[in-house]
Amino acid sequence: MTAPHAPMKTSRFKVPGEGNSAAISVVTIFALLALWALVSNMGWIKPLFLPTPQTVFKVFVEYLTGAANDKPLWEHLLASILRVAAGFWLAVLTAIPVGIAMGMSRVARGIFDAPIEFYRPLPPLSYLPLIIIWFGIEELPKVLLIYLACFAPLALAARSGMKTASQEQINAAYSMGATYTQVIRHVILPAALPEILVGMRIAIGFGWTTLVAAEMVAANVGLGQMVLNAANFLRTDIVMMGIVVIGVVAFLFDLFMRQVEKWLVPWKGRM
Predict the structure, then answer these.
(1) What is the distance between the alpha carbons of residues 146 and 166, in angstroms, rounded to a whole number?
(2) What is the pTM of this model?
(3) Does the residue 160 lie in any domain?
(4) Which of 116, 175, 187, 251 shows a CA-CA span of 20 to 30 A to 88?
């Protein structure tokens, strides 16, 4: 007689949910704020290097109410949002088709792969002088710099996403009479959508990261310009306030993109 087979053990591994980490994130933020308040209020670090949270909040209120000796915060914020949005959406409209073409065509991959991989590792400050020489110091070079920062991650994400659909899915669609165009539209693109949306989240982050460099180009309004101008006068409190505002706005954009991802690809992570 053969020994009976031992019962198979079911895996107890579970992917942590969003709700599980949200509380930890909130506690972490409050812990960092408490540490900042402790270190700065105890005088362990000079105010020139790390102002107190109270000082930063006071400056924030002054800019918010227009009491500061500068443009009000909403003008800086609106200018920066418009620049980042323009560069980001221009990249969405051009980089995603390029990435799809790279994923579907050997010729397109050969044309676009080398230029994208060449400039992708370059920091924006390295080609900023060239953009100024070519396009001047108006709004175009600022938007163009953000556009270039967003383009590469979007194109590469779209290219990677085009390989997500399995060959079994493609063959099944063909066996049901689908044409080549229908396979791309109804099988390959939906499978690539999660990767494309992740690329959009990464790209909008790169856009905000490049904002300060973009607003170095003779800008007289914008969050990056506000931070750079304050740094010239050693106003660390304004610099800290600007950094916090940029971080919060970028985080809200990321939360919005996460929600869009849930709406468009609700099946992600459940397969």
Answers:
(1) 34
(2) 0.81
(3) yes
(4) 187
Average pLDDT over residues 102-117: 89
Q: Mean pLDDT over all residues of the chain?
A: 85
Q: Measure the N-to-C terminal CA separation of the chain; round to a whole number of Å.
A: 40
Q: Same structural domain for residues 78 and 212?
A: yes
> What is the C-alpha separation between 147 and 144, in angstroms, rounded?
5
The type of residue at 141 is: P
Query: Does 119 lie in the same domain as 93?
Result: yes
2 has a pLDDT exceeding 50: no
- Which residues have CB under 8 Å from 148's CB, separation 6+? 119, 124, 127
- SS3 for 126-139, per residue? HHHHHHHHHHCCCH
Residue type, 123: P
- pLDDT, mean of residues 47-57: 92
Backbone angles phi, psi at 28, to 5 degrees: -65, -45
Q: What's 169's domain CATH number? A: 1.10.3720.10
